[in-house]
Design a protein that fits this description.
3 domains, elongated, Rossmann fold, alpha/beta
Length: 554
């Protein structure tokens, strides 16, 4: 055992993870990887699976906290000779496969967590020298008969091991491969040196049995030419393969939720809440995926909230937006109102920190998990991220009219609940005078977007649904209060019709039934039910508002 070679560390970390309450067994990914591993035997092993030559370099990229490191630790713990993993793996899905024991702890594994740095790291040389020295020390201890000279590179030493009688091969597990690109001290020259290091170490080397590499960013942009063209890349947005092994599926969250209900005497988290807060990602295969860190955090804490985005993502989101505020401002406004935006996702471009075009910026936000991607459109996937986008709209003056509208949202909600239609109309006139390109109001969707912005702060107190089925029709907005005794709000929009017509539609179609427990809802609200109509007349360019109390407080 060594620091990197057949290390005990991945085993210990996976052991801890697999014994946790909300562990999800993803070891069936091994059925995809084992056929790619060369075993110095016949191409067909006892599993009956033919090894697919040329696929022994796999790079899987996903947003952070989507289980990449857990997976890397599991793969090392299974294949690596360092520790007997049978006590862990015999209880997991992979133990049912015919080849399970044949490969369990039978391989030399070099596992490198590339997001670890020396105590003092001011340069790329400091960073790479630590990796070089630690691994060289491992190899010297494991293969003492090999003569290692002071100037030997890692690939020189590994080739000596093969050449001079040891005939050993290695599985490489490289976690967080792209970490170094985001360090402030790294130059473009350093990036190319790092790519060259990986290429020299891994490409066309006889000691390489299999390489499993993971990170956030795809490698295409950095690997100009042929340096790392041996890798098969698998991203969430563009490749179906491996999709089910990262993130949590609906079925997996169902299972975790049942565990939660058995453990919690007073559960505060609903299954619907988990979906609202953390679902929304779409893989190329069409599967919906939940953010795993957030689901586990909510169930462990017995509370819905921001877990994945709790440390800095607001700043990270705005980092991308500020590169091209003018082009992105309207798109963000539309996405916050629930309207997807057409985009050409170019994942290769997302690896560059010098983003200029709108499509490059949106691509980067998809890669980092800030946006979802489906059917050629990007969107804000869930409430956890919607809250962060809302924060950004209210905090960043550079967003112009979008920022100004969001800042009025607290006053708009207050005026609505107090029946102050004069203030509501004043705010809508302010909206009109903000010179928003959305204010042509050529259709109700544009009015919907603006109304979403002026009620943005209401998201702190309400679950707001658009086009929700209610009564005998579909209502534009329903505001479900988080406190059951708070005001319930039904909001209907009209262009070239009156606000009174909007309120009459709410009453005629019995939209209020949604709050009265008559449609099978689990919750009965006791607060007032308010019918709110907002209308815009294109001819006189005036907004009108009307509020009617449909039910007093119970």
């Amino acid at each position: 055992m060594g620091f990197y070679l057949n290390s005990k560390k991945p085993y210990l970390l996976f052991q801890e993870e697999s014994s946790s309450t909300y562990f999800v067994d993803k070891t069936s990914i091994l059925k995809e990887l084992v056929p790619l591993v060369s075993c110095n035997e016949n191409a067909r092993g006892e599993s009956g699976m033919s090894r697919r030559k040329g696929h022994k370099y796999v790079c899987i990229t996903r947003p952070r906290r989507f289980g990449k490191t857990v997976m890397a630790n599991m793969i090392s713990a299974y294949f690596g000779k360092g520790v007997d993993g049978s006590e862990i793996f015999k209880e997991l899905d992979c133990s049912s496969f015919a080849w399970y024991k044949k490969h369990l702890n039978k391989h030399n594994v070099i596992h490198i967590a590339l997001n670890e740095m020396p105590n003092k790291c001011d340069s790329y040389d400091d960073y790479i020298l630590r990796i070089h020295n630690l691994l060289l020390d491992d190899l010297a201890m494991a293969f003492p008969k090999i003569h290692i000279m002071e100037d030997d590179s890692l690939w020189d030493v590994c080739n000596k091991i093969v050449e001079f009688g040891e005939a050993e091969k290695f599985i490489f597990v490289l976690d967080e491969w792209d970490f170094i690109f985001h360090r402030k001290f790294i130059t473009e020259t350093d990036k190319m040196a790092y790519i060259g290091f990986l290429s020299n170490f891994l490409k066309d080397q006889p000691y390489v049995e299999f390489v499993y590499m993971t990170g956030i960013l795809p490698i295409s942009k950095y690997s100009s030419g042929s340096e790392l063209n041996m890798f098969y890349e698998y991203t969430m947005a563009t490749k179906e393969k491996y999709s089910e092994y990262f993130g949590f599926t609906d079925e997996e969250v169902d299972e975790l939720y049942q565990r939660y209900l058995k453990m919690q005497e007073l559960p505060n988290v609903s299954r619907e809440g988990l979906k609202l807060w953390y679902d929304g990602y779409q893989t190329m295969s069409g599967k919906r995926m939940y953010n795993p860190r957030s689901v586990v955090g909510a169930l462990s804490d017995n509370q819905l909230g921001s877990y994945w985005t709790s440390s800095g993502p607001y700043d990270e989101i705005f980092y991308y937006v500020e590169h091209n505020v003018e082009q992105l401002r309207d798109d963000i406004a539309l996405m916050v109102s629930g309207i997807p935006i057409a985009a050409k996702i170019q994942e290769y471009a997302a690896t560059s920190m010098n983003l200029t075009t709108k499509d490059e910026i949106l691509s980067a936000m998809v890669v980092y998990g800030f946006l979802g991607y489906e059917d050629g459109c990007v969107y804000i996937p869930n409430k956890e991220l919607m809250n962060k986008f809302s924060d950004m709209l209210q905090k960043e003056p550079s967003l112009g009219y979008v920022h100004r509208l969001a800042r009025e949202s607290g006053r708009m909600l207050q005026a609505t609940k107090s029946g102050d239609i004069e203030t509501m109309m004043d705010i809508m006139e302010f909206v009109h005078n903000s010179e928003s390109p959305l204010l042509s109001y050529s259709n109700e969707a544009e009015l919907t977007t603006v109304v979403t912005l002026v009620y943005l702060e209401a998201r702190d107190m309400y679950q707001i649904e658009r086009e929700d089925k209610a009564g005998i029709g579909y209502v534009d907005f329903i505001f479900y209060p988080l406190k059951k005794d708070d005001d319930c709000i039904i909001l209907e929009l009209k262009v070239d019709h009156t606000a009174e017509e909007a309120v009459n539609q709410i009453k005629k179609r019995n939209y209020a039934l949604k709050f009265q427990g008559k449609l099978g809802e689990k919750v009965k609200y006791t607060g007032r039910i308010l019918a709110v109509g907002i209308a815009y007349n294109k001819e006189d360019k005036k907004h009108t508002c009307k509020i009617e109390v449909l039910r007093e407080r119970a």
